[in-house]
Amino acid sequence: SSGINAEYGQVLILSLLSGKPVVIEDIRHLEDELGLTDYEASLLKLIDELTNGTKTKLNETGTRLVFNPGFIIGGEVTHECSLTVPLGYYLEVLVCLAAFSKKKFNITLHGVTHGHGHPNVDTVKHVTLSYCKKLGLHSAELTVNKRGYSPGGGGEVVFNCNTLKVVKPIQWLEPGKIKRIRGVASCARMSPATNPRVIDKARGVLNDFIPDVYIYNEHLKGAQSGNSPGHSLTLYTESTTEVTLCCDNTATNQTLPEDLALTTTHQLLDAVHAGGCVDSSHQYLVLLYMALTQHHVSSVRFGPLTPYTISFLRNLKLFFGVVFKIKVEKIDLEEPGNKKGLGSTLILSCLGVGFENMNRSMT
Fold it and tell me: Contact, 202 vs 215, CB < 8 A?
């Protein structure tokens, strides 16, 4: 693999699960700061703590990485994460590996709970883990002991998850109707009036579409509030067929509470309009489980695929030889003014490779 970007985490995940070593070359070789970043190196260290026999080798400049995967052992691990990225960066990897470990995961992470570029801990707790439970990880749980906003961090979360022997086929084709919207408005080391302003503005938009809207108010102070001030909003829908769609945003220093609410609510409505049974930030997780199921066909309805997802599809073919059939299906959408709009969703189907968790069989 040449170059490095958002694919870095998914390449390490698929290497560990397939047992195939990888070589990543020319890592930021044309940039001022060569090689791996601090958070990418921190992820390697976390993987080393969770596995047995994993060997990594970096050249002197850090622009070439040789990764030889070991066995996923799991167990109880405490890790100090980089403050450059939120903990969602690490949790995205952990939720993919947890099911295929020898021991149950009991991982304590310290760092930034709310940042930019990756899901915050509220999204992981309420949405990512709801997908995990539908996929068979019934005891998956995330406990937020402390919140920590960027840049100072100071947050702490504990991730627990059971293991699986095999993955059952997946058939998610009916998105259903939205029956409720839930959310979490969180702020730390800021005025207690911040969250009510966010909640009132968000409800003012969402109540035009559905009456059952409830957003939890979490105002933290003292030891639980981390080292930096900040506020965020996470929103997610629940449908009649247990489909969950979500979005989250963390405010910058100049963001007004009302602007944060409007941005997040509009993104949520866009996610609902896009259709599908999986939101854009969790497409990779469902595709991974579809590829690893027993030798049966799995089919899931998706909305538009993100560039990250397209890259993940290519890597699934590279590591496991799995090819997906993609069917475009037109759907009618009722739009304002009783007009009919024509949208489309994608039905992705594949035959699972029959993956078995051999780590759990080890003595």
Answer: yes
